[in-house]
Design brief:
There is one protein chain. This protein has 484 residues and is α+β, with helices and mostly antiparallel strands. It is built from 6 helices and 32 strands. Strands 4, 5, 6, 21, 22, 23, 24, 25 and 26 form a 9-stranded antiparallel β-sheet that branches. Strands 7-16-19-18-17-20 form a 6-stranded antiparallel beta barrel. The relative contact order is 0.13.
């Protein structure tokens, strides 16, 4: 009884299995026919060998150059394999936003840090005009703030005594020429004009002189002490004025081209929150700092209340006048670390990665120096998903071109170096998807032999090739991290 039931079940399931199998085969056949029909519906412009794209053929068949079949070039590709077609419904679901490249008036601001310093143009150095002695030092020390004409030291000059007595003796002789010669001798001995005037008024010789500060400011140094002997020309003190101070600003050297004389500067000091100081660039110093890679800019700031103290720090904003420039939203830029890309939106739902050179950045917009034209459209939202899709499809771009032109496409693939010889690379590579070229081992020429530096047999690389009249030429080689 059990045997009959199993046999009956087998007889029932066998037709069902045969029916399902036939149905599955029918589905597969229908799918293949659909793909074939879809492929046949595309208009083929010509057939070609990806290694020799300049040679075109009117019919399919084996390549006369390589051991592979010719590849068709379809009309809908437009002869450009650097673009990708995205369904409009997909772009809508991604929330993709496209914005035009516009020409606008922009102004650039550079943020930097600065330090207050003494104004080295407002300096007074006090010296001894004759040999003498230090009789008294007033109660002063370096870094004291002193007023103009503040006394510094009392000095004795024995050499002045003989010259003064001679002058006084000649005053009563009625010899104006001799008296003028005696006065000149007093000046040559180092007596200041006010000391000579006091001698004429009092008629008494004096060898003591109180040295005073010629300007008000900071006593930077006081180099004498009581009892010291001074030679002629000895330095006594150095005073720095405080009416104006210098603001030395460290600007990154990458932004040095944006600096101009007379540029407006706004400084904000932590010591005075909520208060800003305005000035202009007075000098762009000729030497860059090797350690910080910055260029120093000097700004002169007024200091009437002497609240600005050298050594204080400041946050500085350097503004530049407005100028016309091509701009795109900053969010549209894809920065890889080595270059900057945008996703260019073309007609019929096509998108192309384009390399651009950027300049000034302000108000969430960035200047485009080269790579785009006014009126072109770029993707401002969702471009990173397109960039990932472009990488999966092997789409890439070359270096920046002249202003007003878009970058030419390179075709990428990964592989292993089998051999190196002069300017040739024997490469076992995977498929070049944008060329419809399968993986194989073949020799490539390189655009520049410098690309081969540091490479050896067995190195895993990613190459970018361009189509030329001589065949495929390697324009870029990148070593991959998974080396053997």
């Amino acid at each position: 009884m059990i045997f009959r039931i199993k046999r009956l079940a087998l007889l029932i399931s066998l037709p069902m299995f045969i029916t399902g199998t036939v149905a599955g085969i029918s589905v597969i056949a229908s799918s293949a026919q659909a793909q074939s029909a879809e492929q046949s519906e595309k208009e083929v412009l010509y057939w070609y060998d990806p290694m020799y794209p300049q040679q075109r053929f009117d019919a399919p068949g084996p390549s006369p150059f390589m051991d592979m079949d010719l590849v068709p070039r379809y009309a809908e590709e437009g002869g450009d394999s650097a673009s990708m077609l995205i369904d409009p419904s997909v772009t809508q679901n991604l929330g993709m936003r496209v914005t035009p490249v516009t020409r606008e008036s922009i102004s650039q601001t550079v943020e930097a840090v600065g330090t207050l310093a003494y104004n080295e143009r407002d300096v007074a150095v006090v010296q001894a005009r004759s040999a003498g002695f230090v009789e008294k030092i007033y109660d002063l020390a370096p870094e004291d703030v002193i007023a103009e004409n503040a006394p510094l030291a009392d000095l004795l000059f024995p050499e002045w005594l003989a010259a003064q007595e001679e002058y006084l003796a000649l005053r009563g002789m009625g010899e104006p020429q001799l008296l003028a010669a005696a006065r000149q001798r007093l000046r040559l001995a180092g007596m200041p004009s006010e000391h000579i005037a006091a001698l004429e008024r009092s008629g008494k010789a004096s060898i003591s002189w109180t040295i005073t500060s010629p300007i008000g400011g900071v006593l930077r140094s006081l180099d004498v002490r009581e009892g010291m002997t001074l030679p002629a020309g000895a330095s006594l003190a150095r005073i720095n004025g405080l009416d104006k101070v210098w603001l030395d600003v460290a600007v990154p050297e990458a932004q040095a081209s944006n600096l101009t004389m007379g540029q407006k500067v706004e400084a904000r000091l932590p010591a005075f929150p909520g208060k800003s100081l305005e000035g202009v660039v007075a000098a762009i110093l000729p030497e860059a700092n090797l350690d910080s890679r910055t260029v120093r800019v000097r700004v002169v700031l007024p200091n009437p209340d002497q609240l600005l103290r050298p050594g204080m720090t400041a946050d500085v904003t350097l503004s530049r006048d407005e100028a016309e420039a091509l701009v795109v939203p900053t969010e549209a830029l894809i920065r890889t670390g080595r270059r900057t890309l945008v996703m260019l939106a073309e007609d019929d739902g096509k998108f192309r990665p384009v390399e651009v050179m950027t300049g000034r950045e302000t108000d969430f917009k960035t200047e485009v120096i080269s790579g785009l034209d006014e009126g072109q459209r770029v993707v401002a939202s969702g471009q990173f998903l397109l960039d990932s899709e472009a990488s999966l499809r092997g789409l890439t771009v070359g270096p920046e071109q002249a202003p007003g032109t878009t970058s030419s496409a390179l075709h990428e693939a990964e592989g292993t170096i089998v051999g190196l010889e002069d300017d040739m690379v024997n490469l076992s590579h995977g498929p070049f998807k944008t060329l419809n070229m399968p993986g194989m081992t073949m020799a490539f020429s390189v655009a520049d032999t410098a690309l081969l530096e540091g490479l050896q047999e067995g190195t895993r690389v990613r190459v970018g090739v361009s189509e030329t009249d001589e065949g495929l030429v390697i324009e870029r080689i990148e070593q991959l991290g998974d080396q053997p």
